[in-house]
Every structure is written in structure tokens, then in C-alpha cells.
């Protein structure tokens, strides 16, 4: 059986956005009673969304906006709910309005960027996420989502850079190490790929994806023994794909046994 390589895709990860409960809550020209009423509708919308009543939440956010047309939090929260319901165009409109009213609202740029990407506008999504990162440099999800978009347009080097930045500034994340290893593998930098997976294994020794990926990278460097060890560990942890590769390890073990046998026979002849 010949050695072969199974291609594998990165695991993508989309960020979760929290609803705004404060911030720019209204136009100063709105009367105090109306401001309070708009706030109540916005909070009611938050509760309905938390309870799973998406339509009810949108209705309440819309009421808040009708009372106070400059209510940033209401536009932002309505955008999140619309996006979760699949209305990406409606979400983009609301995120854009929130940005118009509050250009420093990084979450609105992230949300709009993700919605644009979903609709196929990868470059627009990257532009918005870059702005979000500029405003909030510690936003790990923004780096991850921008990296995924770069991958989708073929910018593997840019993807690689974003994963490394996210790893540098954030807490250890198994998905990040997995995606970093895969990006390096795609660039045929197999030794670095194996090292990236190995670094992830130090933090997440029970993640079968990391062993599986490192096995693929090791196989490409000629380290058949290391590849087999990783695939066996990955299989032990529950990876179905690794099971497919295990017959290659049987062949490797047979080749190794035959090689040792020939070496021993050669020594005996010399004696």
C-alpha cells in the first residue's frame, strides 16, 4: 500500500456577540420620559431574545428605535438578532446605522464584517474586521474570523499571521493551534506545521485533531514512525479519519520488521 495524504479542512469558528446593555442610549433631544420608555423596550427585547423569542425581540427593539431614532444599542442588538435569524442584509443595515451613530463601536464592525462575509463579500468583511481590531486590539474572535476570511480568498500567509497574533495575545485555544498547523501545512511548511500542532498538544493533550494533523505533517517530513504514533493516539481519542490511516502504519511496521530482519541476517553472515 502506498503512502498517501488525506486533505483536511480547517475548523471555522464564528464569534459570539453580546447584546449591548448600555452605551449611547439616545439622542439628547429625546425627552426623558421617552428615553426611559425606549430603554424599557430595549431591555424587554434583550429578555425576549434570551428566551428564544427572536421576533418579539425585534419588535421591541424596533419600538425603541421608533421612540429614539438615534438609539445605538437598539440598532446593534436588533442587528445581532436579525443575523442569528439569517437576515444578513437587515443585520448589515442595522450595524451600519449603529456605526454611523457611534463610529467607535468595534462590535458593530465585527458583526457587519461577519455578515458581509456570509453573503460572499470577503474583502468587505476583512475591511470591517480590520477596523474592529484597530478599535479593540484584544478582540481574539476578530483575528480568528479575519483569518478564516483570508483563507477563503487564498491569502494563506495573511491567515497564518492572524492566527499567530491571536495566539500571542490570547489564552491557549485548540482551534487556533489546529488552524495554524493546517495553514502551515497548506504552505507546505511541514516541519513548522508539526511544531505548531505539537505546541497545541502541550496545552490540549486530549484533542485528537492535533495528533491527526501532526501525523499528516510528520508523514510529509518522512517521519513515518512519528506519524503512526500520532495517528494511533488520535484514533485512541476517537478520530474516525485516523482509523482510515492506520493500515498505513501496519505496512510501516512490516517494513520496519523486515528491515530489522535483514540487518540481523547481515550480521549473522559477517560472523
Name the CATH superfamily classification of the domain at 21-102.
Tetratricopeptide repeat domain
Structural class: mainly alpha
Alpha-carbon Rg, integer: 26 Å
Percent strand: under 5%
* Overall pLDDT level: 87
Largest sheet: none
Q: Count the DSSP helices.
A: 13
Shape descriptor reads elongated
Overview of this protein structure:
With 271 residues, the chain is an all-alpha fold. Among the domains are: 21-102, Serine Threonine Protein Phosphatase 5, Tetratricopeptide repeat (Alpha Horseshoe), CATH 1.25.40; 190-271, Alpha Horseshoe (Serine Threonine Protein Phosphatase 5, Tetratricopeptide repeat). The chain is 73% helix and 0% strand. The chain contains 13 helices and no strands. It has helices at 32-50, 54-67, 72-84, 88-101, 106-118, 122-135, 140-152, 156-169, 174-186, 190-203, 208-221, 224-236, 240-270. Helix 1 (32-50) runs antiparallel to helix 2 (54-67) and helix 8 packs antiparallel against helix 9. It is elongated. The protein starts with 31 loop residues before the first helix and ends with a helix. 42% of the residues are buried.
Please give a handful of descriptors for the protein shown:
13 helices; Serine Threonine Protein Phosphatase 5, Tetratricopeptide repeat
Give a quick precis of the structure:
The protein has 271 residues and is mainly α.
